[in-house]
Design brief:
Layout (H helix, E strand, L loop, with lengths): L3 H5 L3 H9 L5 H19 L2 E4 L1 H9 L11 E5 L27 H8 L3 E6 L11 E2 L3 E2 L15 H8 L5 E6 L5 H7 L2 E4 L20 E6 L2 H11 L17 H5 L7 E4 L11 H16 L3 E4 L6 H26 L11 H11 L3 H21 L5 E5 L18 H11 L5 H5 L3 E8 L5 E8 L4 H14 L14
Parallel strand pairs: 2-3, 9-10, 9-11
Antiparallel strand pairs: 1-3, 4-5, 6-8, 7-8, 7-12, 11-13, 12-13
Length: 479
């Protein structure tokens, strides 16, 4: 495409419609994406791998007639496998690993017509709220290069915010779609547990905490991708409740009058930056103006118990993945194989008992029941996505020598998001505010288990009332 602004102003469904009506060729869209990747990625480090020739071969073949036929797309180098492509998990231990199969989710992306041309950066094993590792380097936020785009889907969010692609794959085990969506001014929804498949090699991610979807510019793109990818695959251990109608239809239908709970303080009790608190309060006011009922309410639960349970599930699963890789390489796992934060997780996993794992599962199940009871009184729970605007780089580096400081920074930056990984509920970050420095601030909404439709309806209403796609970052002169 000769008109750069035209590409930058479109979402994925708009691009696909122009392909369908033969006003554009998929090759033109791919060229536009590659041009932007070449221009932006040296400054952002959002892409960890690129394979344009493979994408051109797909275009030259018979692209499926899906909703996103011809739309350029990127996969996070974690939680998704593309046969013949690298899958590094952000770790030097997997530096030479090449996938020998497509994930079930990737098969569905392909059927939707998406053109996959690269992989995005992630912190090692997805363990951080920022995308900074000794292996893949530092990924930067397009809104301000001194700040983090978040994690663990930081590369995907940076690529979408920069305009390289309109949508990109992400995964979320503690906030890893919603955190970077908030930090990069994008829409990010974590689906209900079991809504999208994790196979064929795994039945679930991180003991049921993690699930995959996308980070997007528009609500309707996110909804349409979920239409194309939801549902169990043969052999899946469980699935989310059945879907009535389409999510795309929900995203273009305003919700009924909702009863919304406003949570301003996290269960952990850490302080929330005034700008993030104001963003949530402003969203509450907007919702009341739109006819919804909003009142302050706080879910119950022990943050310490839940965080401990979450860490048992995460650390033990990370330990298993790393150990299997080391065995495949014919040796024992060693500290030199991973960054220091990852090695701390390995050591802690070694000290955990089988009883601790069972107790962790029971703890998150109790939390799920408490949240189910909470949503008998409220349709939606509203809170800040993060407790502070996008953090500066260096605070959350995976090779930090100060484990205590790193953990404290994690705890104080993202005290809201992980609760919905433990309950399995759908939750979304909506870009409704910007800081005085011009950095994005997301507002989070969660609905009852299985009720993505309500979130898409509400997000569509908010997007129509307070649109955000016109707000775009720009690199400094010469970038």
């Amino acid at each position: 495409m000769s008109n750069i602004a035209e590409y930058d102003s479109m979402d994925g469904l708009c691009m696909a419609e122009l392909v369908r009506t033969r006003q554009l060729h998929p090759g033109e869209l791919l060229d536009a994406a590659l041009e932007r990747a070449a221009r932006w990625n040296p400054h952002l480090n959002a892409l960890s791998a690129s394979f344009p020739d493979r994408a051109r071969e797909a275009i030259a073949g018979d692209l499926p007639e899906g909703l996103f036929r011809g739309v350029p797309f990127l996969l996070k180098s974690l939680s998704a496998m593309l046969a013949g492509a690298p899958a590094t998990l952000g770790s030097r231990l997997f530096a030479d690993y090449v996938a020998d199969h497509d994930s079930t989710l990737v098969e569905r992306y392909k059927r939707a017509g998406l053109v996959i041309f690269g992989m995005t950066t992630t912190p090692e094993m997805g363990l951080s709220v920022s995308t900074e590792t000794s292996y893949s380097g530092t990924t930067r936020n397009p809104w301000n290069l001194a700040h983090s785009p978040g994690g663990s889907s930081g590369g995907s969010a940076a690529a979408v915010a920069a305009g390289i692609v309109p949508i990109a794959h992400g995964s979320d085990g503690g906030g890893s779609i919603r955190i970077p969506a908030s930090a990069c001014g994008l829409f990010g929804l974590k689906p209900t547990r079991g809504r999208t498949p994790s196979g064929p090699l795994a039945g679930e991610g991180w003991g049921s905490l993690a699930t995959s979807h996308v980070i997007a510019r528009s609500v309707r793109d996110s909804a349409a991708v979920l239409d194309a990818t939801h549902g169990p695959a043969p052999g899946d251990p469980y699935c989310a409740p059945p879907v009535e109608g389409s999510y795309l239809s929900a995203a273009t239908t305003y919700p009924k009058r909702l009863k919304i709970a406003l949570q301003l303080a996290p269960l952990s009790g850490v302080s929330v930056a005034p700008e993030c608190r104001s963003a949530a309060l402003d969203a509450a006011k907007l919702l009341e103006e739109l006819g919804h009922d909003v009142e302050e309410a706080q879910p119950e639960g022990s943050f310490e118990e839940l965080q401990r349970a979450s860490w048992v599930l995460v650390a033990s699963n990370v330990r298993l993945t790393l150990s299997r890789r080391a065995r495949a390489l014919g040796r024992r796992l060693a500290a030199a194989d991973v960054d220091r934060i990852t090695w701390a997780a390995v050591e802690e996993a070694d000290s955990m008992s089988a009883e601790a794992y069972a107790a962790a599962v029971q703890a998150i199940h109790r939390h799920s029941r408490r949240m189910a009871a909470f949503h008998r009184s409220y349709d939606v729970l509203l809170s800040p996505t993060l407790a502070a605007p996008p953090t500066k780089l260096g605070i959350h580096h995976m090779d930090s020598p100060d484990l205590a400081a790193w953990r404290d920074a994690m705890r104080t930056y993202s005290p809201f998001t992980s609760l919905f990984n433990m309950s399995g509920q759908p939750a979304m970050s909506v870009p409704l505010a910007w800081s005085e420095e011009g950095l994005p601030i997301g507002v989070m909404f969660a609905a009852a288990f299985g009720d993505e439709a309500t979130l898409f309806r509400l997000a569509g209403q908010l997007e129509a009332t307070r649109p955000w796609m016109h707000r775009r970052p720009s690199l400094p002169a010469g970038a």
